[in-house]
Each structure stands twice: as structure tokens, then as C-alpha cells.
Design goal:
It is globular and about 60 Å long. By secondary structure, the protein is α+β, with helices and mostly antiparallel strands. The protein is 40% helix and 20% strand. The longest helix has 26 residues.
């Protein structure tokens, strides 16, 4: 496992793990590392103190002093959607595609009903779901943060009330339609809105699955409406294959697929537009990764 993880991070371009983090120096960073046969988690580290990690995390909040959470400067709103995905490759990919459709529909419903902005990034978590990220600069404009501060409302109260309110609305059936029924069944994590919350860094490996958290859409990559139409126009299996293919090939200049091919002599070359071919490749990948998991 350590060899695979080390090779994966070595394959990434410099700076890519900070690409989707506004003001990295204002964040608390944390990571896991291998100590003997145990995976150890440590936090309250600045980014320049982080090395030799298996997984990398950053705080959703921005602080004047990240090591003590003093002086809240801003906050990223992250909607965490998880589902129990089956292990059988084809069923896994179908469920993954179906869940991404749920996420896209929910984002549009939040915009329609609450005036939510478009997300900044939607990424596969590397395990069993997706993270929808709204960056601090986007959240400040949407919540009229400066106005509330002048009225004497503490930023921490804004964060916790808004975040948990969104989850409550979704759970109570505010998000309409059969295709997002899963969101009303409690698959949203309301602990995400604790001021000290950490989130897996985009690009970080997930040691539970040995899959990286990778973006499936970002503002820099194109218009939301085009992404939405692409997602809703594909069948579940095709969409799941597309997400899995991006997981293996991100960021396009290395990535997990290249590492698996080089380190494990595993052929990961497959066309996601041919689901039958890709399902076989994905099954081989998951089988190899399952053998490596601690």
C-alpha cells in the first residue's frame, strides 16, 4: 500500500493538491501516515509541516491562526453526500452514476428554492459519494457575510445555522422528485458544519478504498448547465464509468491508472464509452486495490 500511495503522490504535478483550496496558509492541515502497521491521524499542522502522508485534509474554515482556530476569516460550504455502494463492479458503477445525478438535481433545487450559487467544485470522495464545494468567496457573496457581521451576528453562527439548515431542509423533503429520494433518507452529513471540521483534500488518496478524491466538475472546467445536461443525459452505468475513468486518469499527467500500470503491471487502459469493456477493467482495478488495503 505504501508503495502505491507514494508513487501516486509522486506522479502528481507540483501544487495540484492545493489547486482547489482558497488561501492555503489560512487553513489547518492534517494527515494520516503509516507507523509500523498502524495508520495514524494527526492534525493542527501547517501545510509546510505536512510530509510523508497517506491522506491529506484541510479545514473548511479560514483562520488568522489556523493552529488554534482563532480569528475566523471565512468558510467553505461543503455538502457531503454518501451512499453505501455495492462491491460488485457493475452495480458499483451504476450506483455511483445514479448518486451523481442525485447530486446534480439537488444543486439545482437548492438554487431554485434558496438562491444558492452554482458550486465551485463537485468531486468524487474517493470512497462512496461526492463532495459539493462552495468556496469561501462564493459563500460570502451569497450570504452577504459582511452585512451580517456589521449587524453583530457572529460568523460561526452563520456557518452552523445555514449549513445545518440546508441538511434539515433536504432531509425533510425540501428537495423534490423521486430521483433524489436518497437525499431525504439521511445521506447528508450535518457534522460538516462544525467550525473545526476537516475535509479530504481534492487529490488525496482514501485509504479505505485506495482511490483518490478527484473533481468531476469545476467552474474552470466549463459551464454548470453543460455538465448538468451531460450528467442527466447519460444512463447510470455510462455515467459511473465516466466518473471511474476520471478517477483513474486525473489529473491527466500521471494519476492512479498510470501508477497501477507501472507499479503493478496492471492494464488500466479502457474506453469509458464502452461500459462492458470498462466494467471488466474496473473490476480488475478494484480486485488489486482490495488486496493492498491495510
Amino acid at each position: 500500500m505504501k508503495t502505491l500511495v507514494g508513487e501516486y503522490y509522486a506522479s502528481l504535478p507540483s501544487g495540484v493538491l492545493r489547486e482547489f483550496v482558497e488561501d492555503p496558509s489560512s487553513r489547518e492541515w492534517a494527515y494520516t501516515f503509516l507507523k509500523g502497521r498502524d495508520i495514524v491521524f494527526t492534525r493542527k499542522r501547517r501545510l509546510d509541516e505536512v510530509s510523508g502522508f497517506l491522506e491529506l485534509y484541510h479545514s473548511t474554515g479560514k483562520f488568522k491562526n489556523p493552529k488554534s482556530w482563532e480569528g475566523l476569516l471565512g468558510w467553505d460550504l461543503v455538502i457531503d453526500v454518501d451512499a453505501e455502494l455495492p462491491e460488485e463492479p457493475e452495480a458499483f458503477l451504476k450506483s455511483l452514476g445514479r448518486l451523481l445525478k442525485d447530486v446534480v438535481i439537488a444543486c439545482d433545487e437548492l438554487r431554485r428554492a434558496l438562491g444558492f450559487p452554482r458550486p465551485d467544485v463537485v468531486n468524487f470522495s474517493g470512497s462512496k459519494g461526492f463532495h459539493v464545494r462552495y468556496f469561501d468567496s462564493t459563500v460570502r457573496r451569497w450570504l452577504r457575510w459582511d452585512l451580517h457581521e456589521r449587524r453583530g451576528i457572529k460568523p460561526g453562527e452563520i456557518i452552523q445555522r445555514v449549513g445545518r439548515g440546508v441538511v434539515w431542509l433536504a432531509r425533510e423533503g425540501f428537495v423534490a422528485g423521486d430521483r433524489v429520494r436518497a437525499l431525504r433518507e439521511g445521506l447528508l452529513d450535518d457534522s460538516m458544519y462544525d467550525l473545526k471540521r476537516l475535509i479530504r483534500c481534492v487529490g488525496s488518496m482514501n485509504v479505505k478504498s485506495l482511490l483518490p478524491a478527484v473533481p468531476v466538475w469545476s467552474r474552470e472546467g466549463g459551464r454548470w448547465v453543460d455538465f448538468r445536461d451531460e450528467v442527466l443525459g447519460m444512463n447510470d452505468l455510462e455515467l459511473g464509468c465516466l466518473v471511474a475513468h476520471r478517477t483513474l486518469t486525473w489529473p491527466g499527467r500521471g494519476g492512479l491508472g498510470v501508477v497501477l500500470s507501472r507499479v503493478l503491471d496492471l492494464d488500466t487502459d479502457a474506453d469509458p464509452e464502452d461500459p462492458s469493456d470498462f466494467v471488466e477493467v474496473w473490476g480488475n482495478v478494484m480486485s488489486v486495490l482490495g488486496e493492498l488495503k491495510p
